[in-house]
Write the structure tokens for this entry.
Amino acid sequence: MGEGAMKRFLHAGRCGGGGGAPTLAAPTPPSGRGLSRRAFLKWAAVTASSLSLPAHAAMELVDALDSGRRLPVIWLSFQECTGCSESLTRAGAPTIERLLFGFISLEYHHLLQAAAGARAEAARDEAREREKGGYLLVVEGSIPTAAGGACATTAGKSHLDQLRVFAADAAAVIAVGGCASDGGLPAAAPNPTGAMGVGALMEAGLVARRPLVNLPGCPPLPVVLSGTLAHFLAFGRFPESDDGGRPLAFYGATVHERCSRYHFYQQGLFARRFDDEGARKGWCLYELGCRGPVTRNACASHKWNGGVSFPIQCGHPCIGCSETGFWDRDGFYRPLEAVALERADASGRGEALYQGNCVYCHPVDPAQLGISPEGAVEQLRSSAIRAHQRFSFTDTELQDLEAYLSERGATPP
């Protein structure tokens, strides 16, 4: 569907009345984005909320996005499955139509563009020259570095060379999906193509450093991508991020913290097979290998398919797809402590205890625990805290836990 036809489609049906003949729709905003003023204000409020911005930020979004400026975007796809692009097409706040025809100018995207072949490449290169230093570069997929980048090419040019050229002239870069963030599936052992994420390439000096935000996930939630785009368009910068370059609004809390099955964990009710009574009753999926306690993502709060559900809610444990190296780490369908217990050293056994018991109420990273290793063990021994009374650790287990906390640098605030 062409832009004109799509715009006519978006405008269709925007009329109403008191029950008689339909009347013309209310005038569109000054920006002419095909959206009623009320809908525009509502969208801005929803977007500000999803980004955890203060209430006044909604009007700042309105002012910035109503200015008529469209952000030029070049989207490059490398070693990927197109799942991240598919996720974008299911965005709801804002929708893909409003993004494309109202807020951004998508100069190149091999899935969504009408042109192909030499014509598409020429349009992409012309956009780079025209918008040099002002466009936003979105990268989907990992970048192969083995054999001089020959493992993957487009139009006779390696993906690594393409990224070098387009990153050098970009105002900022979004690494969308696990593959672009840290290599993802292509980088899983033994990583035959030498796949790397955008950030690692910048760190290694193989690609020019530019402001970068990572949106990991396989794929990331639609609102994560659309919300990040809206924030950059409105404020000229990415949302506040963690040490891994992930927006805190979406990756600031673990899946477990907001899980719809959390109360079953508190009651000690776990499904141990996919077809047992616990599974049928919707009990906690930790025993089936759920990685929710150590995975930072917004799946449990924003969900998928317009807020309908997310994997844990529909009966499948979280596989930790927004965490670095999740394809190689721990394995699936095995409890976290079972994997950690395979390590022979005391620290490994202590990690198993921490992941199996403590991360449900305390930070995933023990360095943020806010108490010394000795103090934590003493609290557990005394059972002075009510939540600790359900534990029955042996002296050996407590020694292992203390060793792990000491290794990870747990310190008082």
Q: What stands out?
A: The chain has 18 helices and nine strands.
